[in-house]
Amino acid sequence: MPFDPLLVALDVDGTVVDHDMVLTDRVRDAVRAVAAAGHHVVVATGRSFVSVQPVLASLGLDTGYLVTSNGAVTSRLDPALPGGAEDVEVVTFDPAPALALLGAELPDAAFAVEVPGDDVLVAGPFPDGELDGPLRTVELAELTALVGARATRVVVRSPEHTTQDFVELVGRVGLAGVNYAVGWTAWLDLAPQGVTKASALELVRTRLGIAPERTLAVGDGRNDVEMLRWAGRGVAMGQGPQEVHDAADEVTGSVADDGLADVLEGLLAPATSP
């Protein structure tokens, strides 16, 4: 019987690694084994391309597809290419209206804007280690003029606010023309309208010729909801919020309990059983 590979889409933070960037041996080995078995392992993250490189290196993933910036950037990995990858699709937007609204509501917040091929523009202080890659500090008032319609992702960080504060804020002010997801703390991600991890993964699925029912996605955050609903089998990490669990077909263990490994080892069990 011919081998019928899966498309296995994996969130990074809270799924592959914990929020201290710890990757356990068990999870690493499970990811590598699934890839070695011939399945298409696709990392799908809110991180930028630069930020996710250490994780890819630890997992031994240097070929196939990669989804970054919450779906705004889809890349094909190939060690023979300059920089190890080429862009398949890049979707950008003008964040000016959203920045104006959020800047007025959160005058003490920090803002970061990702621009393809450029530095990450940062207005306000981010805690150490939360942003990777080349950063350029600017004033919030400069962001609109410097970015124009070239943004792939905007991050809003306000440590003095809770996650629930952010949920209530976006519901109250409305954010037209963008997709948004509230993160693990007072962290808000903005992406181009209609762009999610799911929209990018659908492009990858089509290019690979994988049937919709042969897709698996694992994630823990609100920015994973669309991805979990998109997948033929969506699995939420145990520590994720209830709305993420509700979007999934099933719930696995937490990242602290190697919940991802439980899922991936299950894919390999039929092939290794007597």
Quick recap:
The protein is α/β, with parallel strands linked by helices and 274 residues long. 33% of the residues lie in helices and 23% in strands.
Can you lay out the helices and strands and say which pair or pack?
Blueprint: E1 7-10, H1 25-36, E2 40-44, H2 49-59, E3 64-68, E4 73-77, E5 85-90, H3 96-105, E6 110-114, E7 120-123, E8 135-137, H4 140-147, E9 153-157, H5 163-173, E10 178-182, E11 187-192, H6 197-208, E12 215-219, H7 225-230, E13 233-236, H8 242-247, E14 250-251, H9 259-272
Parallel strand pairs: 1-2, 1-12, 2-3, 7-8, 12-13, 13-14
Antiparallel strand pairs: 3-4, 4-5, 6-7, 6-9, 9-11, 10-11
The appropriate CATH architecture of the largest domain is 3-Layer(aba) Sandwich
Sketch the topology as an H/E string, one letter per element. EHEHEEEHEEEHEHEEHEHEHEH
Compute the number of strand runs: 14
- CATH topology of the largest domain, which one? Rossmann fold
Strand content: 15-25%
* Main sheet properties: 8 strands, mixed
The chain-level mean pLDDT equals 91
**Helical run tally:** 9
Quickly count the domains: 2
Seen as an oligomer or otherwise, the chain set is: single chain
Structural class: alpha/beta
Strand order of the largest sheet: 5-4-3-2-1-12-13-14
What is the molecular shape? globular
* Fourth CATH level, the homologous superfamily of the largest domain: HAD superfamily/HAD-like
CATH class of the largest domain: Alpha Beta
Q: Give the terminus-to-terminus CA distance.
A: 17 Å
Low-confidence stretches: none
Using only C-alpha atoms, the radius of gyration works out to 18 Å
Please bin the fraction of helical residues: 25-40%
